[in-house]
From TrEMBL:
Its EC number is 2.1.1.71. Catalyzes the second two steps of the methylation pathway of phosphatidylcholine biosynthesis, the SAM-dependent methylation of phosphatidylmonomethylethanolamine (PMME) to phosphatidyldimethylethanolamine (PDME) and of PDME to phosphatidylcholine (PC). Residues 153-164 are cytoplasmic. This is Phosphatidyl-N-methylethanolamine N-methyltransferase. Coiled coil: none annotated. It is an enzyme of class 2 (transferase). Its main location: endoplasmic reticulum. One of its GO terms (cellular component) is endoplasmic reticulum membrane. It comes from Macleaya cordata (Five-seeded plume-poppy). It is found in: Endoplasmic reticulum membrane.
Length: 164
């Protein structure tokens, strides 16, 4: 199950890379009348479900969780929900790459934490270290580090134009 679980953990990252690097193809694939951010969110939720199933397949759950679980998990999820609250679906799911005008946000956690959604996700993953073997957490974190690097090299000239 190890290789299958590893593939499941890494599954979303080629998709994110493709959308970030070639947003025009995604907008065209979605077609007129379909919001590319909304479709990305739907596909991403399915891929996230596969990631969780993959982790669960190699996990050994026990109760109660270790002392560090709750602070890391609550902080991580707070960051994730706050980012989504401030950016909305289009801001969270590459709307700017799909030609949408996403306002610049400076409220917490933006301006205080670099890449707050990724930091929140990593914190939530680290909270689960007592249940999930380290190598799977590491793979997932490396996927996030890769996407931080990819997203830090945004070329506005490659943004898609919305289909009208």
């Amino acid at each position: 199950m190890g290789v299958v679980a590893a593939i499941g953990v890494l599954l979303p990252f080629p998709f994110y890379y493709w959308l970030w690097t070639f947003p025009k193809t995604w907008v065209e694939l979605c077609g007129r009348g379909r919001d590319p951010s909304k479709v990305m969110a739907q596909v991403s939720h399915f891929l996230k479900l596969l990631q969780f199933i993959s982790l669960f397949s190699v996990s050994s759950l026990s109760w109660p969780p270790p002392f560090y679980f709750w602070p890391l998990f609550i902080f991580g999820q707070f960051l994730n929900f706050r980012v989504y609250q401030l950016l909305g679906e289009s801001g969270t799911y590459y709307g700017v790459r799909f030609g949408k005008n996403i306002p610049w946000v400076t409220e917490f956690p933006f301006g205080y934490i670099k890449d707050p959604q990724y930091v929140g996700s990593v914190a939530s993953l680290l909270a689960c270290l007592s249940w999930v073997p380290f190598q799977y957490i590491l793979l997932w974190v490396l996927g996030y580090v890769f996407m931080i690097w990819v997203e830090s090299n945004e070329d506005p000239a490659t943004r898609a134009m919305p289909l009208s």
